[in-house]
Amino acid sequence: MQLVSDYFGCMVFDDSVMKSMLSEDDYNTLKRTVKDGRSLKLSVANAVASAMKDWAIAHGATHFTHWFQPMTGITAEKHDSFISPAKDGKVIMEFSGKELVKGETDASSFPSGGLRATFEARGYTAWDATSYAFIKDKVLCIPTAFCSYSGDALDKKTPLLRSMEAINRQAMRVLKLFGNEDVTSVKTTVGPEQEYFLIDKELFKKRKDLVYTGRTLFGAEPPKSQELEGHYYGVIKPRVQAFMNDLNEELWKLGVLAKTEHNEAAPAQHELAPIFATTNIAADHNQLTMEIMQKIAKKHDMVCLLHEKPFQGVNGSGKHNNWSISTNTGVNLLEPGDTPAENAQFLLFLCAVLKAVDEYQDLLRISVASAGNDHRLGAHEAPPAVVSIFLGAELTEILESIEKDIPYDTKEKELLRVGVHTLPKFPKDTTDRNRTSPFAFTGNKFEFRMLGSSASVSDPNTTINTAVAEVLKQFADELETAENFELALHNLIKRVITEHKRIVFNGNGYDDRWLAEAENRGLHNLKTTPDALPHFLDEKNIALFTEHKVYTEREMRSRLEILLQSYCNLINIEGKTMVEMTRKEILPAVSEYSRLLSNTALSKTSLCAELDCSYEKETLAEISPLTAKAYEAVKTLEQALSNANKADGAQKLSVYYKDEVLPVMAKLREAVDRLEQLVSEDFWPMPTYGDLLFTI
Ligand code: ADP
Ligand code: MG
User: According to CATH, what is the number of the domain 566-694?
Assistant: First the structure.
C-alpha cells in the first residue's frame, strides 16, 4: 500500500523539487525574486523552465498551460504541448523561460466589463511564483495572473495579490510600533470549508434545469427532507466514501491539504475542509478542489453540485472562509497572547477587523453577491444578508470593560489597561458556537460565512484584506505620532470599541427581531444582488480600493458591469430553461395524464352509470385550473424574458430581472410543483426531489 506521506504533493513542482533540480545560485535568486516581488532574470527563468519541463515530462506531462482565474469565477487553461519539430520528422520537447514567465492569450472571450477594446483583444498571463506549478491530467499548470495589455486586471487573482501586499505594508507599520524587529512580512491565511451535494449522474441527466443551471427550478417537497437531522455527521455511505477516498488522493497528490470530510445537514450534502494556507494558495487550492470534486464525482457516476441552492426548501451550500493574519515568524496575530504587550497587539488587530467590517459591510456583502447566493442569504439556514460580527460572551465583556472603564473581573477591582495588564483568559468558543453569525470570531481567526459554495474565495478576501489594511493604516498614522504610545493605544482601542460596537451581535442571526434591531443600529440590509452591487461604486469604496492600489476606478467599473451582467445572464438562462421544461415536458405530461383520467371517467360512466369516478373527476378538477395557471405563467415568463432587452443599462436590467422575472418564475413553479403532487409518477417527466436526494 502506498503511504499518503509518500505521494503527498508528488504532482507539485514544490520547494524540495526546485532545490534538487536547480543550481544553488538559480534557486536562491528565484526565492529572493519571489520574496521581493520583482521580475525574474531571463537566465534564471530559462533554468527554472527547463527544470520544470524535465520534471513534468518525467511525471507524464505532455503539455503546459498558464492556469488562471478569469472573472467567470472558474479557472481557465489553454494547453500547449512541449513539442517542437526536429530533424528527420522527429520532435524535441521544449519550454523556455519566456513561456514560463509570460503567456499571451486571446482575451476577447473572457468578460472584461468593457475594459478591452475590440482592437486590443490580447491579454497576457504572468506567473505567480508564490504558488507552485503542478501537473493535472498530463498538463503542467502554471498559476498565473491575467491582465490586459494596458495593465488592467482581468482576473480575480491580481487584485487578491495586490490586497495581500496592501495589508502586508500596513500591518508591518503597526508591528514595528510593538517592537517586532524580527518580523519581515505578514500574510493573510485562509481555510475554506467547502460544501457540496452529490447526486446520481443518470438522474441528473434527466433534469434540464440541473444540466443548464446547476439548480432545480421545479420540484415538490418530498415526504422526508432534513427534519430528522439524521444526515449531519452521519455514517458516510460506501459510494460516497469511495468518492471521498479518490478525491482525497487526487488532492493530496496536488499538495492540497484536504483534512476534514463529513456529511452535512441536508440529505446528499457533504463538506470538505482543508488545513489553511496563505491566501492566494488557498484560493488556487479551492478552485482545484471544486474542479476535482466534479471530475471525481463523474468517475463514480455521480454529479457534484456546487450551486448555492440546488434544492428549494433544503439547506443550501456555503463556503466558510476562515481568515487570519500571521507573521513570517509564525505568529498568528489574531491569537490572544500571554503578556500585556502581546495582548495589546491582539486587541488592536481585533479592533482593526471590527472597524473594517463595520465600515465596509456593504463591500463584504457585495463580495459574496450572486444570483445563486440570493436564494441562500437570509433563508433559514444561512446567515442573513446583514453583516455582523460574533465575538462570544467573554471577549465582548472584555471589550465592554475597556470601553466603559469598569473592572472585568469583579473580584479584582482593577481596571483593565491595554498594554499594561494581561487580558483575562477567555476560553475558546467551542461549545456555544454561533452558527448563525456571518462573521464569527472563533478563538484565533474569523470565519466569514456568507460565501456561496460555488464562489471563488478571491473576492471576499480581496475585500477583507483591503478593508483591514485601510484601518491598520489609520491606526499606524495615529500611533506613530503619539507621544505616549501606551496611552494612545488604550484610547484608540477604547474609541474603536465605542464607535464600532454596533457591528457586534452575539445573538441568533436567523431571528427576525435581529433584522429590526440591525436596522435601528443603522446596519445595511442589502437583501439581493441588485440591491447590493451599486454600492460598489460608493465614494468611500472607490477611495478604499484605489488608495491601496487594489483596483483602479476603471477596474472597479468594469467589475461591477461584469457582476451585473452575469446576474442577468444567469436568470435569463433559468427563465428560458423553465419555459422549455414547461412547454416541452411538463404540460404535455400533465395533458397526457389528464386524458387518461378523463378517458377512464368516461369509460367507467359508459360501462355503468353507478361506477364511482370521484378520483378521476376530482383530480381532473384540480389539475385543470393548475394547468391553465402554469400555461398562463409560462406565457407571461416568455413575455417578460423577451421584454428584458428594453431595459437600459446593466443596473436597470438587473432590477428588472429581480422584480419582473423572478416573481413570474416563482408563480410558474408554484403551479408546477402542485401538479407534480397530483400527476402519476409514471407520467411525471423528470426525477423528483425524493429520487435526487435519497438514492445515492
Ligand atoms: P471548526 O471548529 O470551525 O471546524 P477548525 O479548527 O476545524 O474549526 O478549522 C476550520 C477551518 O479553519 C480549517 O480549514 C482550518 O484549517 C482553518 N483555520 C484554522 N486556523 C486558521 C488560521 N489561522 N487562518 C486561517 N484559517 C484557519
Ligand atoms: Mg467552521
Answer: 1.20.120.1560
